[in-house]
Write a structure and sequence with these properties.
This protein has 13 helices and 3 strands; from the N terminus they run H-H-H-H-H-H-H-E-E-E-H-H-H-H-H-H. The protein is mainly alpha-helical and 319 residues long. Strands 1-2-3 form a 3-stranded antiparallel sheet, with no helix packed on it.
Length: 319
């Protein structure tokens, strides 16, 4: 490993910081990464930067594969979980690939480097009856109309909580049964909206339009208004949605730990179970890699295995 002398560390620190700042600017401006993504990269690469400083590296080009493997091992040894180490390593790969592309380093030290394997946990899902119980929120009050529309849309279209929070009325085509969603990586996709969700959204839209017409600060363009506004009139926050979903689950008598992503998991599992179309589910969810979607095939197989164990004469366990 090629490491600088101690008296060059200050200059090296400045070089490391400057290159890191340029990379983060690239993510923000050219890649248009979301604030959440930027924060994640910033945290993970700050850990790499701190480690590089303690090791005395003057510039990113001084780090080779063996050294970077040591960083990964150190992070794992100090208690970071395998998924967190994998995420940190992914940020490192993005940085070094960008540095290589721009001629700042001669070789990519992250090439071929693997993080610790983590057992893949299958996501919990709600069955169809539980989902029906959950989404049928009483809508005899304005907040009930909102909650019903929110829950129906979650389950109808498999949205991420961030996608639901950022929706504007102009993104919805209730007549056509579609919603335009801005997903991860600022990629847009069109997702179907089911009949029950369209009816709930139409009722909520009528209530919202009446409220906006009576408000002195109504937005000029109805299509620009958030579908689910918060207290300040801007989009509702993911935290507020998470809290409300949990409250609604308890009120509706669903005693599992319910959160917005559980509704997305349930949507994907139910569509795949009925259709068997993995590629279609990938498109609906907005997954860049089909390997991410394949976890739902394991859920489907688990269901089939339970049916088999309970029905096949030679599969039943002895009493």
């Amino acid at each position: 490993m090629n490491r600088p002398a101690d008296d060059g560390r200050e200059a090296g620190g400045q070089a490391l910081d400057a290159a890191l700042a340029r990379f983060l600017d690239h993510l923000a401006v050219e890649k248009q990464a979301s604030p959440h993504t930027l924060d994640a990269y910033r945290r993970d690469l700050a850990a790499l930067r701190t480690w590089a400083g303690t090791q005395g590296f003057a510039e990113w080009g001084g780090i080779d594969g063996l050294a970077l493997r040591g960083f990964v091992a150190d992070e794992h040894a100090r208690g970071l979980s395998p998924p967190s180490v994998q995420r940190r390593l992914s940020a490192c790969r993005a940085l070094f690939r960008w540095l290589l592309k721009h001629g700042d380093i001669a070789a990519d030290p992250s090439a071929g480097l693997r993080g610790p394997k983590a057992p893949r946990k299958l996501p919990q899902v709600l069955d169809a009856d539980e989902m029906g119980q959950l989404v049928e929120v009483p809508d005899d009050a304005p907040l009930g109309l909102r909650d019903r529309a929110m829950m129906e849309l979650f389950y109808s279209s498999g949205l991420r909580v961030s996608e639901l929070c950022s929706l504007r009325w102009g993104d919805l085509d209730l007549a056509g049964g579609e919603v335009r969603v801005l997903g991860k990586g600022r990629k847009t996709r069109i997702v179907p909206v089911g009949r029950h969700a369209r009816e709930a959204l139409a009722a909520w839209a009528a209530s919202e339009a009446a409220s906006a017409s009576n408000a002195s600060s109504a937005v000029a363009s109805p299509g620009a208004r958030p579908v689910f506004p918060g207290r300040d009139g801007g989009p509702i926050t993911p935290r507020a949605v998470q809290k409300r979903v949990r409250e609604l689950a308890m009120r509706q008598g669903v005693w599992k730990r319910v959160h917005p992503h559980l509704l997305r998991h349930s949507f994907a599992s139910h569509v795949l179970e009925s259709s068997g179309d993995l590629r279609g589910v990938q498109e609906l969810l907005g997954h860049a890699n089909i390997a991410t979607t394949q976890i739902y095939t394991h859920l489907d197989f688990q269901h089939l295995a339970k049916v088999y164990d309970g029905a096949h004469p030679r599969a039943k366990r002895k009493p």
